[in-house]
Amino acid sequence: MMEQCMCRLCQLRLRYSITQAELAKAAGVSRQLIGQIETEKECQSKGHEAMLRRAFACVIASRREKLDALEHDLARTAWLFSLAEEEEQDGF
Questions:
Q1: With b meaning 16 or more CB within 10 Å and e meaning fewer, what string describes 61-70?
Q2: In the list 29, 51, 78, 84, which could disulfide-bond 33, CB 3.0-4.6 Å?
């Protein structure tokens, strides 16, 4: 049985639960292109490397903002089991 090697891009993406679609959206490209870059060596260029690093930076920034908002909300929540306020329920 042939062992399948995984590029570092795919390993990092999977480790941090980043979908191809999420990374593609951050990069402004299709999910299919992300898949091609992950699996086809001929698609792995310096240009794609730079694009993907920028996309990862966007994902990190987006998640950081969301986690900061969660931290803020938790800090001002006295009791997690209290009923959510009506305007907050609409935000889901």
A1: eeeeeeeeee
A2: 29
Ordered by start, the domain boundaries in the chain are 8-76
Rg of the Cα trace of the chain? 18
Enter the pTM of the model. 0.80
12-33 pLDDT tens trace? 999 999 999 999 999 999 999 9
Structure-block tokens of residue 48: 């794609």
Q: Label residue 42 exposed, middle or buried (CB < 10 Å: 0-12, 13-18, 19+).
A: exposed
Cα distances from 69 to residues 30, 46, 55, in angstroms, run 29, 35, 21
Residue among 92, 5, 10, 4 nearest 52 (CA): 10
Q: In this predicted model, what pLDDT tens digit does every residue of 70-83 receive, in sequence order?
A: 999 999 999 999 99
Q: Is the dihedral of CA 71, 59, 56, 18 positive or negative?
A: positive
